[in-house]
Design a protein that fits this description.
Shape: rod-shaped
Number of strands: 58
Number of helices: 30
Strand content: 25-35%
Radius of gyration: 60 Å
Distance between the termini: 144 Å
Largest sheet: 11 strands, antiparallel
Length: 1434
């Protein structure tokens, strides 16, 4: 139980005090009424003694009484009605609330920190009022009257006669059978005569004379003259006199601190009846009836039958407030206004005189009489004390269990019964705190009552015996709790008297609590909770809860559970405030522990009770908690919660319709997932027109592609700024999200929409309907300062000329669904825009479930969905920036950077480009060329310029070079819609090459240039507002099959330079699916014929293998090779060798064709005049049309395939050191085996599609670098390297050998043997056959070379003889020569044969070294093929 103001040792004596009746004449009552008090009320503050009081016990021993208090009350002849008592108790409890600002007890239990009210004053008020208002009963005498004060006024005509009338009246009330109430302790009640004298108005001499007469008649011990009203009630004239009555009267006020003019602290039951009043002490307007001085009224707790209907009870405790019946409030009333401090002392003196001279002697005498009667009746020794031993040890009756005893609670003893005399004596002893003697008597009486099976009497004796045993000084025996348990059970189960059972529980629980037996106290309190009284059950459950929390090991969950039960019962009893308080106390325990259903129940109840008490903010808060926690409730329950919440919220918002919009809890908004998009939505494809994909909110973020776009933009910016990226460059961001850099204020362009994507989530199982959903924003126009313009705007109607806003009329989020809403703003003015949040009406769809108690309200909404009830509110978008982690301070603390994605700066107008692709393919063959068109449209009001396109795949597309306009289209090319520029050729030019040339600079390719950045050839380089331009665009299918994503970034600028936005970009991602077509492989070899037409060496043979690897998926029937072209700075194809009869080289599926071409060096004069970027193109045609390979688009794609080569930096000349010259020599040797010949194979493919034949065209490139090394048109897949063993030893620093490889050295000198293929010799005439052989030596390098020719056979092993045959060279066996740059030298040799046969003449070994080198690189020249000669005998 909670702490109490009084200890139990103070509480019990205060609750059981001697009762004194007061009977006043009308005149006497009038005198006291001048002070707004009745006579009994007048005495109340002075009826406790602060000093000790002495009396003698029956043994003549001195007995001390501490803090004695007497209770004086007016005589009431009707017993109080239970309904009125219930109403009084209910009012007392509801009037007592926790004080504002009361410091609560903080209890820490485990991981709970609980704020618990330390005291429960409402319980103490209830207990005090309950004990005071208990009706007197026959089985006990504790609240029977011991004495009666008869009060008359000195101003009456015959005061003594009045006393006689009062005395007769008291006698009549006590002894007449008409009156069963009130109860009197003994027949011979003490009468004490009090003469009241009004000092200010009365005659003091007369009063004294009357008093003398009284003393003569009643004795000095039996009467008293009390002088009061020493001053007139003019309160302004004198000093302020203290008011000791208010605290007593407020406690007992039925209404909470209210008073009435007819009698203080009384309550009218009927507005029209002034005479029918209720008051606690029963003093009302006395109406004289039948000439009697007093008409004894109904009890103060009597309910009038004609009471106002508003006072009817809804249940045992459910009392409606009746404050509206108040006639006059308490504010102006001062009690004791006519009394001085001297009067106070006189009243105090009067009480002392009455107690010492009247009451205590009377009690002492009565105890002696009762003691004597008992002893004489028992026939025992004189003293009760000597007899107790025999009584207790005498024939004991075995105590039967209650269930065995017959229900004889109806047994009534006559008043003179000896058993009742023992009880009377026990009660008297108890009232004067003689607990030892009281215990003995109660114990004896208990046995007698149990013997007679008078259960009501027995229970009363058990109860008081237990209390007496506890209060005995020195505690000779332990508290007999089982007595109390038996008494409670008897009262409740046998006597059916819950009031007495409740008194037992209240007393016993306090006693147990004082002994720290909290568990037993809690069990006792819980046992008395029942359905007959909600208020009692609520209070007892609350006290039980406090017992659980005050235990040595506090039981927190039991505390919370019983607080909930108490709150429920308080609610049923109509005590809404107490119910709310209990639930809030319990909530501390259940909160945040995962008991979600319990939390929901508590919050729902708190919401309901707060709403009833008009604490609307608390109600909203509680309902909000139910909705925002992850609820495990059923859908119907959640729907009920939501509607109740909306209903409460609606009422709150109606109270302050002009106030700020409230924050709504639903739906959840994932603020960090908010995305902001600047710009118009993308247009859909229109027929053959396909708009650039650009950026949209539908695209998922991909960090890799985001990085690619950034690099493309950087490339474009670098080209525009002459290779340097400006320090203030930041990549353009059209879509801001979690992954973008949001540390700077984003830039938006005026007249272009800003779209905000808000991510909603509905955590409930019921759908939510948001209506009139729009963004909440703040805008500060540029050039206007001051806070006045920073108003929060949320509607389209507000300043539409500044910012336009889109409103979504209905937005439905289904149960547990996540859904995004895209809301737009249209800025019409430059300035700073701040997007604060969203504003909307929150509602639910009608027809789910109705809230218990509150039906669905009619919705004022017309739309797709029927809205039940909705409230308008807002939710803010607050985005936390990224965690800072750069400096040491940031790493050691938790700091977050700004996130400014919702704060765009609106800048001045910029051009806006839209790009459309016309006839853009989605599927191509590898290498296929297709012509499409691109349309550029300027949809803004500003001209744009500097249009460029950047791509990582420049080899995929071209807009044509500068020569695109030079070459006319042939008629057949127009007919066939060919992408190439072609000219018709005559049949004579077959097999031989047609020469043309072009510079790579014309095609945007040159050393050091950025081939990825391509300027778009706009006419006049400017695109005016509203203008559009269509340009051709050639595409070539990538060489690898599969799906290719090709990114284009269009870069453009405004003609008028803007300070904030330098340029804009537009993105496009093309997806192309390529399928296999041809596989081209080529090898170049030196030609063995050393002399060409001009007599110079240096011819080459080019072998080209073309394989059709198409799998016929694309419906390709066959490929025709229509032309093979070469492109090189130094070489050109001359003619086709061994051309088959078939003019068109056709390749069906999986067929392979082999081609051989002769290549030769370009003429010196061509090479001399041409610039280093000039390429010679040679076309060998297999059809009747020449495709001009040096024009667009053939040359474009060729140059683009070369671009990766051209990007390599050129070697810079450096100072000649010995090492350097050595490296130069190596480089010279390496160059001999290099060739820069590029082959372009042009083809047509015949495709059958939808029973129509289409002709596709394309080209493949092979780049030949090295003689004898095969090159491919398609990228070779790298074989993964084999795993190597780990080496744990550090390798020694070995210098890389600068020796050239064997293959490179073997290319230095080209050798060729000239001899007859067969030679006839008559061996029978001449045994030796001599054959002349010419050995041609050609220097392939551009340096002087020393050559050694050795004719000796290397070995004489049998294998070697088999290879070479037995022939020998005649003459000089070794020649030493020096060959100048590219010189050809011939040696005349003779071979000698002795037999016929076939011989290999390729045995001469040639050694070479560079003339100016000290180090000799010697290596045998490898002859590529055997030189066979046939020797015939003639």
């Amino acid at each position: 139980m909670a702490q109490c103001v009084q200890s139990v040792q103070e509480l019990i004596p205060d609750s059981f005090v001697p009762c004194v009746a007061a009977l006043c004449s009308d005149e006497a009552e009038r005198l006291t009424r001048r002070n707004h008090l009745s006579f009994a009320e007048l005495l109340k503050p002075f009826s406790r003694f602060t000093s000790e009081v002495h009396m003698r016990d029956p043994n003549n021993q001195l007995h001390i009484i501490k803090n004695l208090k007497i209770a004086v009350s007016n005589i009431i002849t009707q017993p109080p009605q239970s309904g009125a008592i219930r109403k009084l108790l209910s009012d007392v409890v509801s009037a007592s609330q926790p004080a504002e600002g009361l410091v609560a007890n903080v209890i820490t239990v485990g991981d709970y920190d609980l704020n618990i009210s330390a005291t429960t004053p409402w319980f103490e008020s209830y207990r005090e009022t309950f004990l005071q208002s208990m009706p007197a009963s026959d089985h006990e005498f504790l609240n029977h009257y011991l004495a009666c004060m008869l009060v008359a006024s000195s101003s009456e005509a015959e005061p003594v006669e009045q006393f006689s009338k009062l005395s007769q009246e008291q006698h009549r009330i006590q002894h007449n059978n008409e009156y069963s109430y009130p109860k009197w302790f003994i027949p011979n009640t003490l009468k004490y005569y009090v003469l009241l004298h009004d000092v200010s108005a009365g005659d003091e001499q007369r009063a004294d004379s009357v008093y003398e007469e009284m003393k003569q008649k009643y004795g000095t011990q039996g009467c008293y003259l009390l002088k009061i009203n020493s001053r007139t009630s003019n309160r302004a004239s004198d000093e302020q006199i203290p008011d000791p009555w208010s605290q007593y009267l407020q406690k007992n006020s039925i209404q909470n601190q209210e008073s009435y003019e007819d009698g203080p602290y009384t309550i009218t039951s009927n507005k029209n009846s002034d005479s029918n009043l209720l008051s606690l002490d029963g003093l009302d307007n006395e109406v004289k009836v039948d000439g009697l001085p007093n008409n004894f009224r109904a009890h103060s707790l009597q309910l009038d039958q004609s009471s106002d209907p508003s006072n009817s009870f809804d249940g045992p405790d459910h009392v409606k407030s009746s404050s509206h019946e108040t006639k006059k409030t308490n504010t102006g009333i001062i009690h004791g206004a006519c009394l001085t401090l001297t009067d106070h002392d006189r009243i105090r003196q009067f009480i002392q005189e009455f107690t010492f001279r009247g009451l205590l002697p009377h009690i002492e005498k009565t105890i002696r009489q009762l003691n004597d009667q008992l002893i004489s009746r028992k026939g025992l020794s004189r003293s009760l004390f000597s007899a107790t031993k025999k009584w207790f040890s005498g024939s004991k009756v075995p105590e039967k269990s209650i269930n065995e005893l017959k229900n004889t609670s109806g047994l009534l003893y006559p008043p003179e019964a000896p058993e009742l005399q023992i009880r009377k004596m026990a009660d008297l002893c108890f009232l004067v705190q003689h607990y030892d003697l009281a215990y003995s008597c109660y114990h004896t009486a208990k046995k007698d009552f149990l013997n007679d099976q008078a259960m009501l009497y027995a229970a009363g004796a058990l109860e008081m015996a237990a209390v007496s045993a506890f209060l005995q000084p020195g505690a000779p025996r332990p508290y007999p709790a089982h007595y109390m348990d038996t008494a409670i059970q008897t009262y409740r189960d046998i006597c059916k008297n819950m009031v007495l059972a409740e008194r037992c529980v209240l007393l016993s629980a306090e006693i147990l609590k004082s002994q720290s037996k909290y568990s037993e106290a809690a069990a006792l309190l819980i046992r008395l909770t029942s359905e007959d009284s909600d208020l009692r059950s609520a209070l007892l459950l609350e006290q039980a809860a406090h017992c659980f929390i005050n235990m040595k090991n506090p039981m927190v969950r039991k505390y919370a559970f019983h607080m909930i039960l108490a709150g429920h019962r308080f609610s049923k009893a109509g005590q809404k405030k107490h119910a709310l308080r209990c639930y809030c106390q319990a909530m501390q325990v259940y909160k945040g522990k995962g008991w979600s259903l319990a939390e929901d129940h508590i919050n729902f109840t708190i919401g309901r009770q707060s709403y009833t008490l008009r604490q609307l903010d608390n109600a909203v808060s509680a309902f909000r908690h139910i909705l925002i926690n992850e609820s495990k409730q059923s859908a119907s329950q959640q729907g009920a919660f939501l509607r109740e919440y909306l209903y409460v919220y609606k009422n709150v918002s109606q109270l302050s319709p002009d106030g700020p919009l409230p924050q709504l809890p639903l739906p959840y908004i994932n603020s960090s997932a908010t995305r902001v998009f600047f710009g118009h939505d993308r247009r859909p494809a229109d027929g053959e027109k396909q708009a650039a994909t650009h950026i949209s909110l539908d695209q998922e973020y991909d960090s890799e592609s985001s990085q690619q776009w950034r690099e493309l933009e950087e490339q474009a910016v670098a080209v525009v700024n002459k290779g340097i990226i400006p320090s203030n460059f930041h990549p353009t961001q059209y879509c801001l999200n979690n992954f973008s850099d949001n540390s700077r204020f984003p830039l938006a362009v005026v007249e272009e929409p800003v779209t905000v994507e808000v991510a909603f989530r509905n955590p409930l199982k019921v759908p939510l309907l948001l209506t009139d959903l729009s963004l909440l924003w703040k805008f500060q126009p540029k050039g206007i300062c001051g806070k006045d313009n920073e108003e929060v705007k949320e509607l389209v109607t507000v300043e539409p000329e500044m910012i336009g806003a889109e409103v979504i009329s209905e937005f439905l989020i289904n149960s547990e669904e996540s859904k995004v809403a895209r809301l737009k703003l249209f800025p019409h003015h430059i300035g700073e825009l701040h997007i604060l949040g969203v504003v909307y009406n929150l509602g639910t769809i009608q027809g789910s479930v109705t809230v218990d108690g509150i039906g669905a309200l009619p919705g004022c909404h017309t739309g797709k969905h029927s809205l039940s009830i909705s409230v308008r509110g807002r939710q803010d978008l607050e985005i936390q920036g990224p965690r800072l982690n750069n400096t040491k301070e940031e790493k050691t603390s938790i700091k977050y950077g700004p996130d400014r994605r919702l704060d765009p700066l609106i800048t001045e107008e910029m051009p806006l480009l839209e790009v459309f692709f016309i006839h853009f393919p989605t599927g191509l063959l590898c290498g296929e060329i297709r012509k499409a068109y691109v349309e550029f449209v300027n949809v803004s009001k500003c001209p744009l310029t500097g249009l460029k396109v950047v791509s990582k795949h420049p080899e995929f597309f071209t807009f044509g070079g500068n020569t695109a306009v030079l070459t006319p289209l042939s008629p057949s090319a127009s007919e066939n819609c060919s992408a190439y520029k072609t000219v018709v050729t005559d049949s004579t030019s077959m097999c031989t090459a047609l020469i043309s040339s072009a510079s790579s600079v014309d095609f945007g390719i040159g050393i050091g240039s950025q081939p990825e950045v391509i300027s778009v050839p706009l006419p006049d380089t400017v695109l005016l507002p509203g203008a559009s331009v269509q340009l051709p665009m050639w595409l070539r299918g990538p060489d690898e099959e599969g799906v290719h994503e090709i990114n284009f970034l269009f870069y453009y600028e405004s003609v008028k330079k803007q300070p904030k936005i330098r340029h804009r970009i537009l993105r496009h991602t093309a997806v192309i699916c390529t399928s296999r077509s041809l596989n081209v492989r080529a090898t170049v070899y030196r030609s063995n014929s050393l002399e060409d037409e001009e007599g110079r060496g240096g011819n080459m043979l080019v072998f080209v293998d073309i394989e059709n690897i198409n799998t016929s998926e694309a419906g390709v029937k066959e490929f025709h090779i229509v032309q093979v072209s070469s492109s090189s700075k130094h070489w050109k194809l001359q003619k086709s060798v061994n051309l088959s009869e078939n003019k068109d080289a056709k390749l069906a599926s999986r067929e392979k064709g082999k081609f051989c071409f002769k290549a030769m060096r370009c003429k010196e004069k061509e090479a001399a005049t041409q610039s280093s970027e000039k390429y010679t193109f040679a076309d060998i045609i297999f059809g009747n049309e020449q495709i001009i390979s040096s024009a667009s688009p053939c040359a474009d794609f060729f140059y683009r395939s070369l671009s990766s080569e051209l990007k390599k930096p050129q070697a810079q000349p450096s100072v000649h050191t010995e090492k350097q010259s050595l490296e130069d020599a190596v480089r010279l040797i390496q160059r001999c085996s290099e060739v820069d010949l590029n082959i372009v194979v042009l083809w047509k493919a015949y495709v059958v599609e939808d029973s129509k034949q289409l002709i596709l065209e394309g080209q493949h490139h092979v780049i030949l670098h090295t003689i004898g090394k095969e090159a491919f048109s398609y990228p070779r897949k790298q074989e993964p390297p084999e795993m190597e063993l780990l080496k744990f030893v550090r390798p020694e620093n070995t210098t890389v050998s600068s020796r050239p490889s064997v293959e490179q050295l073997s290319s230095l000198i080209k050798t060729s043997l000239h001899y007859p293929e067969s030679f006839n010799h008559p061996f029978h005439q001449k045994s030796l056959c001599l054959v002349p052989v010419t050995l041609l030596l050609s220097n392939c390098s551009k340096a002087d070379v020393d050559v050694i020719v050795d004719l000796r056979h290397k070995t004489t092993s049998p294998e070697a003889l088999e290879i070479h045959g037995s022939f020998t060279w005649l003459g000089q066996t070794q020649y030493k020569l020096q060959l100048k740059s590219q010189e050809i030298h011939s040696l005349q040799l003779k071979a000698c044969f002795v037999h016929t046969g076939v011989y290999n003449l390729g045995t001469p070994r040639v050694f070479a070294k560079l003339s100016d080198q000290v180090t000799v690189f010697e290596t045998s020249q490898q002859n590529s093929m055997p030189a066979l000669i046939i020797i015939n005998n003639v």
